[in-house]
Amino acid sequence: MTPPDPGSPNPGAPGSGARSGPSTRNSRALVMARIRRALADVPRAETPGEVPVERTYHRVHGDRTPAGTADLLAENLADYRAIVHRTDAPSSLPALIARLLADRGATSVAVPPGLPDRWLSAVPDAVRRVPDTAELTPHDLDAVSSVVTGCAVAIAETGTVVLDAAPDQGRRRITLVPDHHICVIRVPDQVVGSVPEALDRLDPARPLTWISGPSATSDIELDRVEGVHGPRTLEVILTGAESAGRS
Amino acid sequence: MSGTHQATYLGMPAFPRAADASTRNTQLRANLRHATHTIRAKRATAVAELDDWSRLRAAGAAIKDRTLRHLDHYLERLESAVTAAGGHVHWAADADEANRIVTELVRATGEREVVKVKSMATQEIGLNGALATAGITAYETDLAELIVQLGDDLPSHILVPAIHRNRGEIRDIFTEKMSQWGRPAPPGLTDAPADLAEAARLHLREKFLNAKVGISGANFMVAETGTLVVVESEGNGRMCLTLPETLISVVGIEKVVPTFQDLEVFLQLLPRSSTAERMNPYTSTWTGTTDADGPRAFHLVLLDNGRTDTLADTVGRQALRCIRCSACLNVCPVYERAGGHAYGSAYPGPIGAILTPQLRGTQSELDASLPYASSLCGACYEVCPVAIDIPEILVHLRERVVEGGPVSVRGTRAVIKPAKGHAAERAAMRAARWALDHPRLLRTGQRLASRTRRFHPRRLPGPGRAWSDTRELPRVPEESFRDWWQRTGGGSRTEGRKKTT
Fold first, then answer.
1. Which fold has domain B1-423?
2. What is the residue-wise DSSP string for B344-366?
3. What's the complex ipTM?
4. Contact residues, chain A, for B196 at CB < 8 Å
5. Fewest Cβ atoms nearer than 10 Å: which of A112, B160, B294, B441?
6. pLDDT tens digits, residue range B369-421?
């Protein structure tokens, strides 16, 4: 009833080391042949583009002013337990960051290489600056109180900030291991309405981290609880556009 | 360490017998009812926020169909894009081969421990067991997977593998078992969800910080760019994807999507369907390797393991659209009562009932019983974000089980015989067809049945007993419809006195 698999993969190890060995190369041909046999009903001349995909869904949900979009972003961030601060006067940003770190009792802060110098200018020298370097180990980072970054784009409809590891955000690990993340969003130029608008602005070649509120889980009785492995406190600052300059 | 002991679905009984036991477990039923009802209402609210949901759903289905109809094309593109970005691509025709590849890759690093992101593909192939045999310990880091691993248990839900456990049971498992795997649970641990999450954080932190090898699956792979996507909540995924030096991702070949833009559809459909959130807390995307940020080596293991057989069935093929959201489990009346373990595979619920018999075939008693694990109510189809017509495939697979017919088995055309267990059903249907083709014979039989009605048993004898165990047999009326119609002219004449027997 069940015929033996004529192209059964070779037993034994898939080649030495990390490279694809002969076994997987055979399996590649085998899997490809199986796919082509399975798709015998698809006309040979059909191209992928001929299979219709209608993108009649909305580019963005609802019609909002830039101010309305920023309000929605703040509302949705807060709905998923991010702590939202707004400072329309860019000059007050350094004082706000200093206050948030002091309120937290932070003794050290991870600093991406391209963070504008001004952002930490009001933070006392007693708070140790930990530069984001390749040598910084996860254990080192585990001893760091907080991290301050910018972002690539923020999505109002979903309450999401996206990091793309640009110089004002640093390596992915620095926003992951410390338990307190302060993320600055420049309003309105970094804020979009929807997921499709955000993807338009992002470069897939860069490693992306989409963050919607602090770390959470739904694993206990399918109810959401905040605070597992990622930063348990996410503070987001929406600031005016004039503070845009990157160092 | 209990890491070498692995729970398994092997040898599990057919669905009706497994469900017969699980439906009597009142604790299990209460846990499942509570969890599934919690998420149902939330999902409906999250979906109702988007007035273009049905269009997103249609687009999601269409993108997946486009991909599946040209899967070879997109896999070739994916392979070259991943390779160009510094990754290594491996192909696994079946579970054994995938396990061998991953084991060899881990061995090559010299490590004996790996951290894992929750992944359906690695559950499906039994990777943890294969690694344990090779002396490699895999630490599950998703909270629910951790509960399952510590409890030496099996997953029972796609999204929340420990959905069958309530908070009190989780507290007991943590208190009893964490010390065998690493850092013990804090003394006096309560069953408050926040405390349980904190215990998991403390237990796993050291493992994340020391990890040299991470193993993951992926929710999506983008053919045009070679980008992989992992959607998660806790941050354990980010830990496993960014801190280790080597990352190995085992991904089913059907997880590919054509373009980066296509993610705009799925990143709207998936979070709202699964955890009922506008967006899940963390989504990570990566393309090959990045200098000095994240793993230095990236391996992608592309897994067939029955997917091409599923692809060969033009009706069943649509099951490969599945994005593993688990909305169909949460609305299913059968899943809610039977629980996930009764389905005997990593894929429980309605999607499991159509996916498992296609991936594994219908030769075993368990797999042949899965298409029947449904009342065909259609709630699963209603909520499916990629519009998989699950009832249609269930009926199609039932037909395959009963009638047999041509299928693809590991890429080769084969003809399966009708299942033995359904001989009585086929005989009954043949008898019915013959009787209905002979009206006079049917009438005689009906009259005979009416006249002997007082002697009819309340339970069927022999093989029919199981059916009537849980059902009342319908009473045979004292007069057949055909006789009544003839006597009264379809009710137009005054009803005369009925003949009594």
1. Rossmann fold (3.40.50)
2. -SSS-HHHHHHHHHHHH-S-SHH
3. 0.90
4. 220
5. B441
6. 999 999 999 999 999 999 999 999 999 999 999 989 899 999 889 998 887 66
